[in-house]
Amino acid sequence: MEKARSSPPRRVSLLQLVVAFVVVGWLFWPKVQDDRIPKKQVKESYLLALLDNKADEWSKKYTAEAHLPGTNYQLVEWTESKMQEYGFETTIDQYDIYVSYPNEHSLKVLANSTEIYEASLKEDELKEDETSSGPDLVPTFLSYAANGNVTAEYIYCNFGSVQDFAELKEANVSVEGKIAVMRYGGIFRGLKVKHAQEAGAVGALLYSDPKEDGNITTANGYKAYPKGPARNPSSVQRGSVQFLSTLPGDPTTPGYASKPGVPRTDPHGSTPKIPVLLISYKEVEPILHHLNGFGEEFGEHWQGALSGYNYSIGPRPGVELNLYSDQIFNITPLWNVYGQIEGVNKEEVIIVGNHRDAWVKGGAGDPNSGSAVLIEIMRALHELSKSGWKPQKTIMFASWDGEEYALLGSTEFGEFLSHKLQKTVVAYLNLDVATTGSILSMGASPLLNSVLRSAAEQLKYPNSTMNLWEHFKQHNDEIAYLGSGSDYTVFLEHLGIPASDMSFRPAKDGPIYHYHSNYDSYHWMSTYGDPGFVFHNLMAKYLGLVLLELSETETLFFKTQDYAVALSGYFEKAAERIPESWLHRKVHVDTLDRNYDFNQELSNLKSSKHMLGYALGETSRTCGRKHKPIAVAELIDEVKKELESFSVLSTSFDDYVLKLLYYWEHKEDLWWWDRIKLHYKIIAVNKRLKYLERNFLHCEGLKDRSWFKHIIFASGRYTGYKGQTLPGLQEAIEDDDFESGVKWLEVIWKAVRRVDAQLDH
Ligand SMILES: *[C@@H]1O[C@H](CO)[C@@H](O)[C@H](O)[C@H]1NC(C)=O
Ligand SMILES: *[C@@H]1O[C@H](CO)[C@@H](O)[C@H](O)[C@H]1NC(C)=O
Ligand SMILES: *[C@@H]1O[C@H](CO)[C@@H](O)[C@H](O)[C@H]1NC(C)=O
Ligand SMILES: *[C@@H]1O[C@H](CO)[C@@H](O)[C@H](O)[C@H]1NC(C)=O
Ligand SMILES: *[C@@H]1O[C@H](CO)[C@@H](O)[C@H](O)[C@H]1NC(C)=O
Ligand SMILES: *[C@@H]1O[C@H](CO)[C@@H](O)[C@H](O)[C@H]1NC(C)=O
Description:
With 761 residues, the protein is α/β, with parallel strands linked by helices. The chain is built from 23 helices and 20 strands. A hairpin with a 7-residue loop joins strand 19 and strand 20.
């Protein structure tokens, strides 16, 4: 019960007023004081530090010795010591992860049970290339391939895609009990193995076909590496054959971190049960020659560029492969290294990450071009800090371990700190293969498009009158969307954190990049890939500017309209594919209450144990109401209407944010009280921007792969690397699964309504 107020009103004295004024001023004034170094000057000093280019030195260091996941602790310590030298606070973060290491292997051809050929399964040692020989060479192997010794007839299965196996089936070619020989390209290698296994193959062999190399082949008169730009015929592509689009991270700890003592499950949900080897084109030729004239021949799309083989698929009766692969499976420590510099605002964090583990001693492109650039960015920030600069947001650099096997280090980190990361991380900026050529290629969450563009416009493209953005636009229509295959995956697709990935790739007729081969070496990089380390340097400038724009701009450098435009485009495309037969069927749908209150949700979350994005979906469901049944066509129109609102609201929201930024940049003209008000308005819009992407998470995740929570972006289920937009809906359409299609329409509708409520300030 409330007590009635009985005391008489008191008069406020002048003294009290003055005191109140001073207290308010003392409390709030520092928040709007601005003694920071102007952004323009920060960026100039940063670029100045990169006039000096040390990428070459770091590349040489990282490419000198083998560093498979969970090995080479000296390199962990060296990375940490560089971070410390540049003034970052460091942590070495250990996870205990299920991995495999090479032991023994062999591959033989048998004719009528007599051995007629044995492949060496080795890359040639080149005297020009120091790290292509020596006692610590990494054998050619595919991590997570099962152990086994199988002898069977073999057939050529093209790229090993779902369509390829469907064609085989249609032609009544049985893969059951056979060894599937598949060429690299098209889709992620682990999914080739998954498809072969599902078709009944007992083993698989992956090879690099010269067709991948376009015009730059020895058949076309180019000399092979090290004498020229074409592929060395003995080169192979090592790699992981885990099932990337099912589950990244430790295959024995799906969805949770591999810290000591956690329970573990059977890894075969996301790793193969059959043995798999890999081979060069030089060594596969004699194997495939035996198939000439046996079995079916499919069309042009099954043709590679091997000589003397016309791509008939076999099998050839009496001709078999004996494929033996043995690896050591183990649970072993892996180490991420972090270097952090605290920002003025500790509640907003930007993470820049790159993995450190490599398939070979060298790995000058993958990942050490990224590692070298990471160190360069830290070095330049250190120079900057000598002038007294401190970032506005906390910046964290991560050197991940085990990316090559299954995005291990980053995924376990994301799973371990999911809650904290969702609350604090503004953006994740990924590097991996930062440089193997001169053509910029990028993928990102649409929220980051504007900052990627702005930073690119500020840099000159080497030997050209173009800026970096103009160069990019010359080669690309737009910034791509992300799929998977690198460490951004957990951030965007599991946690709903905007992420980007960027890389300079070989030009169309540029030197062939020897991906995951011994020839991805310092020698290749300094002679063919990036002589002078010019594009390493440009990448350090570019990613650093993106980082500084994000950190130093008072309002978050996100443009929500870019998201609205992209999402409308994805939905239009998906809607066109919805089967006619669905449109008139009636369905009951849940709708979101119009009284949805973003601030209320955020404050509910403070006490909630749910992950942020999932919880946003969760709580809004409780205020849903049943509607009368509507036709699917109407539901589609409702989604479109909501997307139109998104477009309108995002335009006015972005304008409002720009207006606030303008006032902030001219705050000297404001009365102190207005400055304080402006400060709090900016906090409010930044909160909405920061959490916008989280709205696109769905707590149950995608069908048959619940780890993937993002409803707009996922790794393509049959492709792996390549992304799929609106994956739930698109897969339901592909599968002609009506129930699931309706469910995903509803999920998308609700997510857009939440975003609209959030932008409707
Ligand atoms: C296997 O033996 C049969 C019967 O002797 C013969 O016809 C066939 O050519 C042999 N196959 C090969 C690949 O040598
Ligand atoms: C693999 O199998 C073949 C044929 O069955 C056999 O001759 C060979 O010794 C086996 N290799 C190993 C390492 O077990
Ligand atoms: C495959 O086998 C089925 C059933 O035996 C047959 O109807 C069909 O014509 C065969 N297809 C081809 C391409 O041989
Ligand atoms: C190969 O060269 C031809 C002729 O110069 C050109 O038209 C074609 O685009 C090139 N192909 C590739 C993949 O670079
Ligand atoms: C493929 O090669 C075999 C053996 O050389 C030959 O019999 C067959 O006719 C060839 N097929 C085509 C389509 O060239
Ligand atoms: C730029 O031009 C100079 C002079 O022609 C040349 O030496 C250098 O290699 C070029 N750099 C790049 C990155 O193309």
